[in-house]
Each structure stands twice: as structure tokens, then as C-alpha cells.
Amino acid sequence: MLFKDRVDAGRKLAEVLKDRLEFKDTIVLALPRGGVPVGFEVAKSLGVKFSILPVRKLGLPSNPELAFGAIDPDGAVYLNPQVVSAYGLTDEVIKEVAQKELQELKRRVEKYLGGKFPVLTDREVVIVDDGFATGYTALAACGFVKRRNPYEVVLAAPVSPPDTVEFLRANCNSPVVVYATPEPFFAVGMFYEDFHQLSDEEVIAYREEAKRLGLWEPV
């Protein structure tokens, strides 16, 4: 195991990030739900602002855990062409899954953020998750942020396979910072002792703690 839990992972990731950031009005955007404890610890350790950016993977109707892409809160879809081709996914199927996930995204944006996002223009934005597996949710987050004209986007995670790091660097055209890139890599959870699925209530508790500490970015 590399990490005891997501808190441990966030603290270790912050150590890697502190010498890689420019600290130009920096904000950490955590990808819920699993990225929230990691992002919170990064923001707290570095003394920067914290918020949440919901994105969703798009799963096969027959196997929702197998993703064929991701969607951001603007409704922009990011497809893995290899998976789409291998499973013969039609435009109709893709649209149906995307619409379903967009509704869940809207629910999360309302619940976690009151329906509004922080201003990101001319800011250094650090997108944090608990791990990058295929990289498509991070790609969706990157696309969403870049449309808001940030100063810089940095993608950061405690763990990721090397090929995903290269994929994100090429497709996001942004720095990618990870604590470890171990091989073989089968799933993010294999590197955590505690990798439980977070609830909405836990996400909101982190938001409230960030507010208490003065880290939460008002919207």
C-alpha cells in the first residue's frame, strides 16, 4: 500500500506540489466524491483556497463501472474512442447515458456548491482526484476549467499509471503532478488501505470544515 487513506494521500501529494506551483491566486478543485478529502488536505497543507468540481464518468449500460468517457457540468462529452468502437456504442446510447449523468451532475452542483462555481479567470487552478485511472474524468475537469480562462491548470493525484499521465499531458496541454506512477496498475483503490466510497454527507462535511478554516472559495 502507498497510502493509509485519502487524508494521508493528500498530505503526501501536497509535499510534491508545493515546489511545483506558482501560487498565483491558487485554488484547488477536488473531484467528488473520492477526490474531496485529498483536495482538502492539499489546500489545507498549502494554505490555498478550496472548492469542488463535479464531473462524471460515462459507463456502459451493460457495465456501468466500465467507462467509455466522461461529462462535465457544461454538458461537454469526452469519449474514449477505443471503448466506443469496441462496444459498438451508437450516438443514441451515448446521448442517453450522457443525459442521465448530466442530471446527476446538476444535482451535485446544486448540493455541493449552491448551483454556482467560483471565478477561475487568471487563477492557478489545481484539479485534484484520489487517482487518475483512465484519465477521462480529469480530462473533463480540465476542459471545463480551461473554458473559464485560468492562468494555469495543474492536474494532480496521488497515483496514476504512466500512460495516463502522458495522455493527460498531451490532451489537456497542462502539467500533471502525481506522487507515484507504479506498475502494474489495475485500479486506484489497490494503493489505499482505506478506500471507502464517500457519501454526500462526508463531502459536505469537508466543505463546512473548509469554511471554518477560511479555505472555502465563496461563489
For the biggest sheet, the summary is:
5 strands, parallel
Average pLDDT level: 96
Total domains, how many? 2
Distance between the termini: 37 Å
CATH top level label of the largest domain: Alpha Beta
Strand order within the widest beta sheet: 2-1-6-7-8
Strand content: 15-25%
- Name the helicity range: 40-55%
Number of strands: 8
Secondary structure tally, helices = 7
Shape: globular
CATH-defined architecture of the largest domain = 3-Layer(aba) Sandwich
Looking at how many chains there are and whether they match, the oligomeric state comes to single chain
- Poorly predicted parts: none
Return the CATH topology of the largest domain.
Rossmann fold
Features:
alpha/beta, single chain, globular, Rossmann fold, 219 residues, five-stranded parallel sheet, three-stranded antiparallel sheet, Ybab, Chain: A, 40% helix, 7 helices
Question: Could you provide a short overview of the structure?
Answer:
The chain is an alpha/beta fold. It is built from 7 helices and 8 strands. The strands form 2 sheets. It has a 5-stranded parallel sheet with strand order 2-1-6-7-8, with helices on both faces. A 3-stranded antiparallel sheet has the order 3-4-5.
